[in-house]
Structures are given as C-alpha cells and as structure tokens.
C-alpha cells in the first residue's frame, strides 16, 4: 500500500442485515487533499466515513491511514483495542450533532484527548488548545460549558477538539446539517480556512457551493457505489452520469 | 430525675454509638459507591454470560431484605468456616447491598447516555477504561445525584439493623438505655433526631452539588 497517501480505501464493502450499504468502494486521499462525498440520503456516505475510523466495521476491504492499516493487525487478525485506539487517534472526526462532552468546559473538551490519550502535558495541551480556539474564532469561550454555546459555536469547538489530535486526516459528517441556516456560514468558513492551510479532509456535505469551492476531488455515492469521482469543475459542470445530473438539478 | 435527665447523663453512650454509626456508614457507603461504579464498568459492552450473571446478582441483592443479608453474613458464613467480626460483617453487608443499588441507579442512567459522546471519544482514541473514568462516570454520577442522595439516606437507616447482629451503633445505644431505665420513647426520640440531622445534612450537601452542576451548564446541555 502506498505510504504517501493520507487515506487509502481499497474495495470496501459493508452490509447491514443483508442490505449492501457499501459496494467495493475504493478511494485515495493524498496529503493536503480535500475530498467531498456527495450522494442522496441513505447512499452510504456516513457509513463510508465511519468505516475510515472504524466506528463501523467493514465486511471486506482495507483502509490505511498514513500507511497504517486500521482495524486489522499485521497478522491479519482483528486489532486489539489499544492498537485500534492508537490508529483512531490519527483521525479527527466532526459529527453532525457535535457530540461535545458537556461536563467539560471548552478548553477541557479540547485538551481531554491530547492529555489523556496522547499523554501530552497539561500546559502544552492548553497552549495548543488556545491557539486552536483562536483559529476557530472562539478565544473568549475557553471557560464556557458546551451547554451555553450556540450550535455554530459548538461545532467550531468540535473542530478544534479534533484538530488538537494533530490528525492525519479530518473527517466531517454533515458538519452543518444540524445548524440554523444563519450559523452554517461560520462553520464552513472555518473548514475553508483549514483547507487553505493544507489540512487533509474528507467531508460529507449537502452544501453544493461549498463542496465546489473547497474540494480537490468530489466523490458521488449512489446505493453504496462510487459512480463518479472527479475534480469539482468537471463534476458540477459536466457530470458524466444521468444520476448525478438529476441529483445536481434537485440541489441547484 | 426526669427521663430526659437520665438520657443526658448517658450522653456519652449516645455519642459513642453515633460515632460508631457514622464510621460504619462512612466506610460502607464509600465502598458501596466504588462497588457500584465498578459493577457499572463490568456491565459495559456487549452482553455476555458474565454480565448476565452480574445482573442477576445485583437484582438478587436488591430484592433481598437487608436484614437477611446481615444475618447471613454474620450467622451464616461461620458455617462455611468464615467468621467475620460483627462490625466488619455489618460494613460488608451494607457495602455489597447498597453497592448493588448504586449499580442499578447508574445502569439506568447509562442506558440513556448519548451514544454520540461515546463515538466522539472512540474517534479521539479513547480506550474503554479511560473513556469510562473520564467521560461516562463523571456525568452519570452528576446526573444521578438525587438518587444517590436518596440511597445515602437508605444506607444510613440500614445501619440501624446492625443492632441485631450485636454491633454497638446508635440504635444499640438507645436500645440498651431504654432497656436499662425503661424509657423507650425518649431514648428512641433522641436517636431519631440524630438520623434526621445527618440525613438533612446530606440532603443539603447534595443540593449544593446540584448548584455546582447547574453553574457548569450541565443541566441544559
Ligand atoms: N447501524 C445501522 N444498522 C442498520 N442499518 C443502517 C445502520 N446505519 C446505516 N444503515 C443503513 O445504511 C444505509 C446507508 O446509511 P448512511 O447513514 O451511510 O447513509 P447516508 O448517505 O449518510 O445518508 P444521510 O444523507 O441521510 O445521512 C441506509 O439505508 C441506512 O438505513
Ligand atoms: Mg449520513
């Protein structure tokens, strides 16, 4: 497996009770690349993303993160929990529903994993956390608790929390779908800034203009199959399948 | 001399009994809390035969009158060759019994713990034990504090049963004074006063913890 890819997915398949949700999905993400995954509801976008950090276990196929296989060890056996956690720590995930830890303030949400998973010192982790809060525009919220934040603020904290792990790849599962329309922009702006800084990202989204602006590669999933994979200009202006043309018509 | 005067003369006996009750209570409820947390951890993850047995054990304990457990540990265990001193038998019985209650209280809260937070922890590389200690347990304890407060009061009251296995605690003091001087009403009124005072103090402490939680925005997260 090439070591110079950030994420390499090879012939991935996954079923939920006899329903094939992913079928032979292969995808390579180069370092610094932004890949957006589009597709109708139920097409398998979340499942694909969640397989990347093994929140879902694929039935067949392989996934490598920065050259390291996830979920299966060198001997071909199921990875032990500790090893799996180590590989997972190299991915940063941002969920639709934020999933912050409500008993910890913003700063501690961000330092929790660096300190208790990576073993960083508290001081170092907090310095880094403050830089990240600055980056997502929330320097003044370090001591606030998640319950007191707006959705857009929560999501920006979640992004900072994931970045604090210094992951090889950031995974976003519809990061703005749970937000009020007027809060979507602030989150998308942060993600765009990250792409400008060269972060590797895989993003599931329904925001078409955002996908077009931010992606290096657009992947379209239809019933668990990748039916198009193209640069954004090609994908949006001259899609090669009728399925994608219909999809784009409905999402203007 | 009025009955109250007699009791005042015997105040040392009450005080000794009270301190003994508080020691038994403090030690056993701390142990029970730890046992409850530990059982909750053992119940984490996919169902298994071990977990099912633990559930059966917890339910069995909860459905057993505490008095029976105290009897069994003190009078029953010696027939198996294990002889516990009454004091330790009492502490042990309270710890296990209320530990099971704690486990059940926590389990109820664990059932509705948001899965998303767990996935976030997994995605950030948490192993199961660390996630439990850092993220799950603190929230569950915070959330169940009214039930914990209630359980503290039950446990305090259950210490009174230990009089029947000869532990010299507060109720035993009242019992012996009322027997010696035949002043049951007053002696027991004094003891009730002690139990109430401690219970009210615990309620106030739990309430203060609640304020602390509310300040952190926990109750509207
Ligand atoms: N845990 C699960 N158990 C059973 N079926 C599931 C599970 N998770 C997803 N599915 C099914 O798999 C299919 C793909 O789901 P997935 O969540 O990946 O779709 P999606 O493309 O992310 O859709 P959406 O845009 O609505 O989020 C759906 O039919 C869904 O019902
Ligand atoms: Mg989805």
Automatic annotation (TrEMBL), chain A:
A Pfam family of the record is ABC_tran
The GO terms describing molecular function are:
ABC-type amino acid transporter activity; ATP binding; ATP hydrolysis activity
Give the matching InterPro entries. Answer: AAA+_ATPase (IPR003593), ABC_ATPase_HisP-typ (IPR030679), ABC_transporter-like_ATP-bd (IPR003439), ABC_transporter-like_CS (IPR017871), MetN_ABC_transporter-like (IPR050086), P-loop_NTPase (IPR027417)
Supply the alphabetized keyword list: Amino-acid transport, ATP-binding, Cell membrane, Membrane, Nucleotide-binding, Transport
Membrane topology, as annotated:
Peripheral membrane protein
**Location of the protein in the cell:** Cell inner membrane
Q: Which domain of life is it from?
A: Bacteria
Keyword Transferase: yes or no?
Answer: no
Task: Describe the location of the ABC transporter domain by residue ranges.
Answer: 7-248
Which Gene3D superfamilies does the UniProt entry name for this protein?
P-loop containing nucleotide triphosphate hydrolases (3.40.50.300)
Output the Gene Ontology cellular-component terms: plasma membrane
PANTHER family linked to this entry: AMINO ACID IMPORT ATP-BINDING PROTEIN (PTHR43166), GLUTAMATE_ASPARTATE IMPORT ATP-BINDING PROTEIN GLTL (PTHR43166:SF9)
What does the similarity note say? Belongs to the ABC transporter superfamily.
Q: What is this protein called?
A: Amino acid ABC transporter ATP-binding protein (PAAT family)
- Protein species of origin: Kushneria indalinina DSM 14324
Lineage, broadest ranks: Bacteria, Pseudomonadati, Pseudomonadota, Gammaproteobacteria, Oceanospirillales
UniProtKB/TrEMBL annotation, chain B:
Q: Which InterPro entries match?
A: AA_ABC_transptr_permease_3TM, ArtM/GltK/GlnP/TcyL/YhdX-like, MetI-like, MetI-like_sf
Top-level taxonomic group: Bacteria
- Pfam families attached to this UniProt entry: BPD_transp_1 (PF00528)
Query: Is the Transport keyword given for this protein?
Result: yes
ABC transmembrane type-1 domain: from which residue to which, for each copy? 18-206
UniProt keyword annotations, A-Z = Amino-acid transport, Cell membrane, Membrane, Transmembrane, Transmembrane helix, Transport
Compartments, record wording: Cell inner membrane; Cell membrane
* Segment forming the signal sequence: none
Cite the GO molecular-function annotations of the record.
Answer: transmembrane transporter activity
Q: Which GO terms describe its biological process?
A: amino acid transport
Q: Name one GO cellular component term.
A: ATP-binding cassette (ABC) transporter complex
Membrane-traversing stretches: 20-42, 54-74, 86-106, 187-206
Q: Which Gene3D superfamilies match?
A: MetI-like (1.10.3720.10)
Its topology with respect to the membrane?
Multi-pass membrane protein
What family does the entry list? Answer: Belongs to the binding-protein-dependent transport system permease family. HisMQ subfamily.
Q: What is this protein called?
A: Amino acid ABC transporter membrane protein 2 (PAAT family)
Organism the protein comes from = Kushneria indalinina DSM 14324
């Amino acid at each position: 497996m090439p070591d110079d890819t950030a994420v390499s997915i090879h012939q991935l398949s996954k079923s939920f009770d006899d329903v094939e949700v992913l079928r032979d999905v292969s995808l390579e993400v180069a370092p610094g690349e932004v890949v957006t995954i589009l597709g109708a509801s139920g097409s398998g976008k979340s499942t694909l993303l969640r397989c990347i950090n093994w929140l879902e276990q694929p039935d067949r196929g392989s996934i490598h993160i920065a050259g390291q296989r996830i979920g299966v060890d060198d001997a071909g056996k199921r990875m032990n929990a500790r090893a799996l956690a180590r590989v997972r720590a190299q991915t940063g995930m941002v969920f639709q529903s934020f999933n912050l830890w409500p008993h910890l303030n913003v700063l501690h949400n961000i330092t929790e994993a660096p300190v208790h998973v990576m073993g960083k010192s508290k001081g170092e982790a907090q310095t880094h956390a403050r830089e990240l809060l600055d980056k997502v525009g929330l320097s003044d919220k370090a001591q606030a608790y998640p319950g007191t934040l707006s959705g857009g603020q929560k999501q920006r904290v979640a992004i900072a929390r994931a970045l604090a792990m210094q992951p090889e790849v950031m995974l976003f599962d519809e990061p703005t779908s749970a937000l009020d329309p007027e809060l979507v922009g602030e989150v998308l702006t942060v993600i765009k800034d990250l792409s400008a800084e060269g972060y590797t990202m895989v993003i599931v989204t329904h925001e078409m203009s955002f996908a077009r602006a931010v992606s290096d590669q657009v992947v379209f999933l239809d019933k668990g199959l990748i039916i198009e994979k193209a640069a954004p200009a090609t994908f949006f202006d001259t899609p090669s399948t009728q399925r994608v043309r219909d999809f784009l018509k409905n999402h203007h | 001399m009025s009955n109250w005067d007699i009791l005042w003369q015997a105040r040392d006996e009450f005080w000794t009994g009270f301190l003994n009750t508080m020691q038994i209570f403090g030690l056993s409820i701390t142990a029970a809390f730890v046992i409850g947390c530990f059982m909750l951890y053992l119940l984490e993850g996919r169902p298994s035969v071990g977990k099912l047995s633990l559930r059966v054990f917890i339910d069995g304990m909860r459905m057993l009158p505490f008095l029976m457990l105290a009897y069994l540990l003190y009078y029953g265990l010696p027939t198996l060759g294990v002889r516990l001193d009454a004091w330790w038998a009492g502490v042990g019985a309270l710890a296990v019994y209320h530990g099971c209650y704690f486990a059940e209280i926590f389990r109820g809260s664990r059932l509705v713990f948001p899965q998303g937070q767990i996935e976030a922890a997994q995605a950030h590389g948490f192993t199961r034990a660390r996630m439990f200690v850092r993220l799950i347990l603190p929230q569950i304890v915070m959330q169940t504090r009214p039930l914990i407060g209630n359980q503290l009061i039950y446990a305090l009251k259950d210490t009174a049963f230990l009089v029947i296995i000869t532990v010299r605690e507060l109720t035993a003091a009242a019992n012996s004074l009322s027997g010696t001087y035949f002043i049951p009403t007053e002696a027991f009124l004094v003891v009730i006063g002690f139990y109430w005072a401690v219970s009210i103090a615990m309620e106030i402490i739990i309430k203060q913890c609640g304020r602390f939680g509310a300040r952190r925005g926990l109750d509207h997260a």
